[in-house]
């Protein structure tokens, strides 16, 4: 019995198979490109750092100003405080090379565009009460002069306004109290208790316990507020 001839696939089938193989190759190439684009690059992050640091291993005030301009955020914006917290920056107005690489690596940001795309995430961190408390505590050490254990009053008022100004209805009154008070500095215990006070004490101060473990600063604020409450 003569061997049977192999049936040739119609031309259309050949073209279809060829196109399928081409599509498969293209998809693999496209996926490879996407993965390459999405992968964090330490080299790219390093080059990005030196755009602002120049020849130094630290981004200083001038570089920081350009950095803020490039990412479209004012230096006084609270999102810059969240970013500093993410970088675990030790001094206000400065980012060291180590802080930059570690922090930007954790954020997977190696370019201006990537950081811009992460700004909404950084803002959202403030909505988590646990993270907010950590950022609030961090702000004290971040903003104080490193040779001082306390925060000078003007800096404290600015930082309190940044962190509590939009969420604590009594902040304007508390700020007014600080301005006329005898206090020149705020220590860390006072700082931490202001946050606790803002979270737990009613706006009319009805649940404030004068015999509680609050610092004298807050006892004096409550007394001052009650005396002037009607006119504030």
Automatic annotation (TrEMBL):
GO molecular-function term, one example from the UniProt record: cullin family protein binding
Compositional bias ranges of the Basic and acidic residues kind: 15-25
Top-level taxon: Eukaryota
InterPro entries reported for this sequence: DCN-prot, DCN1-like_PONY, PONY_dom
The name this protein goes by in its record: DCN1-like protein
UniProt key word ATP-binding: no
GO cellular component, one term: ubiquitin ligase complex
Source organism per UniProt: Salarias fasciatus
Annotated gene: dcun1d4
Subcellular location: Nucleus
PANTHER family in UniProt: DCN1-LIKE PROTEIN 4, RP42 RELATED
Any GO BP: protein neddylation
Domain (DCUN1) ranges: 40-226
């Amino acid at each position: 019995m003569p061997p049977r001839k192999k049936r040739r696939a119609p031309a259309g089938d050949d073209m279809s198979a060829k196109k399928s193989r081409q599509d498969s190759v293209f998809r693999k190439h496209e996926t490879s490109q996407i993965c390459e684009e999405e992968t964090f690059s330490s080299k790219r992050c390093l080059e990005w750092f030196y755009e602002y640091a120049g020849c130094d291993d630290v981004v200083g005030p001038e570089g920081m100003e350009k950095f803020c301009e490039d990412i479209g955020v004012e230096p006084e914006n609270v999102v810059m405080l969240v970013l500093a917290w993410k970088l675990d920056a030790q001094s206000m107005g400065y980012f060291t090379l180590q802080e930059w690489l570690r922090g930007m690596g954790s954020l997977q940001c190696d370019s201006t565009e990537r950081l811009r795309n992460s700004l909404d995430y950084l803002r959202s961190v403030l909505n988590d009460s646990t993270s907010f408390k950590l950022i609030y505590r961090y702000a004290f050490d971040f903003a104080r002069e490193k040779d001082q254990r306390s925060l000078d009053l003007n800096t404290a008022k600015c930082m309190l306004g940044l962190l509590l100004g939009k969420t604590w209805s009594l902040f304007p009154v508390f700020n007014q109290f600080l301005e006329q008070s005898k206090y020149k500095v705020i220590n860390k215990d006072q700082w931490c208790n202001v946050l606790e006070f803002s979270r737990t004490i009613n706006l009319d101060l009805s649940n404030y316990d004068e015999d509680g473990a609050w610092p004298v600063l807050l006892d004096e604020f409550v007394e001052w507020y009650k005396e002037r409450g009607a006119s504030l």
